[in-house]
DNA sequence: ACCAAAAGGCTAATGTCATTAGCCATCCCT
DNA sequence: AGGGATGGCTAATGACATTAGCCTTTTGGT
């Protein structure tokens, strides 16, 4: 009975692989167990439950996205930064559609997910801060941004749009619409 | 062994009741069977499978929404009509959050769902037609509208926003942002 | 090096669910 | 009355999550 060398983190790795290969709904302890070469109950030594694993996966995905967004926004500000963030979001979704679909929509119901969501939100808030909005306006602007990006991403990740050829154009218009709704950024 | 008087439609009714009471994830043949006072396998006399039932539920929900939107848009045109549609969408989601969550995001993968989706889309297209856009522009505008409404609705239905008190305000801003992105409607 | 305990695997068992097969009662039409 | 369609039922199967209890490997302290 040699050890498989698993850890909570490597189980999440395997879960992500399952999601990437077979879709978000295919995430099952049995599938992860098969992929890690272990019996299903053994996974309970590393994760509390399937729901738990989903949380871990969600955190991992959100943090991955947060990292990419941070990089994308580096050295930019104002409309430029907002545009970069929105396009990076879409790039992520196109690259990992199943991961995006696996992201929980209700991160607030779990402490770890809420924390990861907060980190993600932080990137957006940091960029919007440059517009010199009031706190209230920034909250509304962030929510709108989230709705726009999430709506488009969800529909696209699920293959909910028909003609896929000019989706880029649609997204550009969506980004332009959002950017146009922001106040002109403060000039230094 | 008295008859229960079920029909495909009444099974969908029961499914909607389950969804309303216990959430979209709680839709299970066992739950529907319990609610209709019938053994689970008996449901197969009326629906082909759980996936089938989900399709029926999705169609019902989309058509219900389509009906409400049609009514909301009656006698209106241009920005007024778009605003009314968007607010009616949100009103529906607030009234039946679980139903909205039960709506499939990928209606294209099924003929019946695609048809219902087409009917829903028709209402939006009809309203946008008044703006005298090219066909291409109308497609982009519809997609953007869908992304905006769906994004907000999804997040709200899942309880994904924090402070719920000024969500109305956020949505108003979102609607205003969208309306502002449309060309000025043609005057008669 | 030793040894106890912690850690990580395993098999067996349970419960929930969808789904299929095969049986029987009820209903409707003639 | 009677025969087929219709709609229920029970029993069985198979996927899955989860729990319990066992056994081996690893590891930390001496």
Q: Topology, please?
A:
2 copies of one chain form a homodimer.
Chain A: H1 8-22, H2 29-36, H3 50-73, H4 78-95, H5 97-102, H6 111-129, H7 135-157, H8 167-181
Helix pairs in contact in A: 1-2, 1-3, 3-4, 3-6, 4-7, 4-8, 6-7, 7-8
The first copy, chain A, binds a DNA duplex (30 and 30 nucleotides) through residues 1-4, 6, 28-30, 38-42, 44-46, 49-50.
General description of the model:
2 copies of one chain form a homodimer. Chain A has 188 residues and is mainly alpha-helical. The first copy, chain A, has 2 domains: 1-48, Homeodomain-like (Arc Repressor Mutant, subunit A); 54-181, Tetracycline Repressor, domain 2 (Orthogonal Bundle), CATH 1.10.357. Chain A has helices at 8-22, 29-36, 50-73, 78-95, 97-102, 111-129, 135-157, 167-181. In chain A, helix 6 (111-129) packs across helix 7. The model of chain A has no long low-confidence stretch (mean pLDDT 94). Chains A and B meet through helix 7 and helix 8 of A and helix 7 and helix 8 of B. The structure holds a DNA duplex (30 and 30 nucleotides).
